[in-house]
Design a protein that fits this description.
Order of helices and strands: HHHHHHHEEHHEHE
Number of helices: 10
Number of strands: 4
Structural class: alpha+beta
Strand content: 5-15%
């Protein structure tokens, strides 16, 4: 285990307990164990198979570290549920429910502010160009970190677009056999954007296409429903 994750171990454990408590009743029903017991089992899976193997991608200085560590808390939950005989689509549903309930805990004024930000192309371009430069600098120090590229002008028919060129979540999934979870993790982007009211569309993912994940926002559209998952809706989006 990298020393960064060793130092963060207690904090991550506390974060996981609160995160998964949002679907605690469902975990008890699926696994037949009290939540405290189920959570400990999930933590053991996470610590042994994920936390001990995570690459260092910049630590607290980059938002991508939180994306990696918290996304795989849901994967660890999935691995626990698979041992209990739960089907993958139901696992994906619980992953979605946990993230949705977490987003709903954000105060409404903050969600409204986020929605305004994600429907302001000029502000987004400025913000994401800065993010591109920060990610490039970080990736030079920590290979395998997130790398992004804002598309100027945006792709046809959209008001703003950017690409994830490197995704540590997908790379980790390929290396350790968690590919089946990735479509559901990617679907969580639709949960976040949908809840803040920002219509996001994606046709490519690093996991499936190997090139990039494209994030495209269209201010005058309606956010897509995120369940059933977007990749299963037959509309060409992932």
């Amino acid at each position: 285990m990298h020393e960064y994750y060793e130092k963060k171990r207690s904090k991550l454990k506390k974060t996981m307990k609160g995160f998964l408590a949002l679907v605690g009743t469902e975990l008890e029903s699926a696994g037949g164990k009290p939540y405290d017991t189920a959570w400990e089992d999930i933590w053991n899976i996470y610590e042994r198979d994920m936390l001990s193997r995570f690459p260092y991608i910049g630590g607290d200085k980059v938002s991508g570290t939180k994306n990696l560590t918290e996304a795989y808390m849901l994967v660890a939950m999935g691995e626990y549920l698979r041992e209990c005989g739960t089907a993958m689509d139901e696992i994906g549903h619980l992953m979605t429910m946990a993230y949705e309930r977490r987003m709903r805990k954000i105060p409404k004024p903050v969600l409204k502010l986020m929605g305004k930000m994600f429907t302001d192309p000029k502000r987004l371009n400025k913000m994401f160009l800065k993010k591109d430069a920060q990610n490039k600098t970080n990736a030079a120090r920590n290979p395998g970190s997130f790398e992004t590229k804002t598309q100027i002008p945006p792709e046809d028919g959209y008001d703003f677009s950017y690409h994830n060129l490197v995704c540590p979540l997908a790379d980790f999934a390929r290396r350790y056999g968690y590919e089946e979870y990735m479509p559901y993790l990617c679907n969580l982007d639709y949960v976040m954007f949908g809840i803040v009211g920002a219509p996001m569309f994606r046709e490519h993912t690093c996991m499936e296409d190997g090139g990039c994940c494209d994030f495209k926002l269209k201010a005058d559209a309606q956010p897509m429903p995120y369940w059933p998952p977007v990749f299963s809706q037959g509309k060409g989006f992932k």
